[in-house]
Amino acid sequence: MKVDDIATIVGKVGYASSNWLVYLKGGFAGLRINVGRLNTVSLSAVDSTAWASGWTLGGGVDYLFSRNWIGGIDATTTQPRSIAGSRSRFSIRPAGSWTRALTFIL
Length: 106
Hints:
Elements: E1 2-17, E2 20-39, E3 44-66, E4 69-83, H1 86-89, E5 99-105
Antiparallel strand pairs: 1-2, 2-3, 3-4, 4-5
């Protein structure tokens, strides 16, 4: 199972002091998951792709260097809940499969 794309809609809540912003974020996540498997009859590889919905949580720290320059670090974890079309296209469920990202922003 491989995550090809992630789309998120998040809200942020944070605290700003001087040039610093510390925040938490959370919301909806959509993940395009590709599952490769072996067809046991023809012994050929078969790929199936579907979108999974779930949630995302994270947080970060931003620093305002100047009026037009902000840098920061953002960490996010995403958990899929269900896969669209999972009954007909997939024989596995994504339970326990997490994606994590650490992003440096400039």
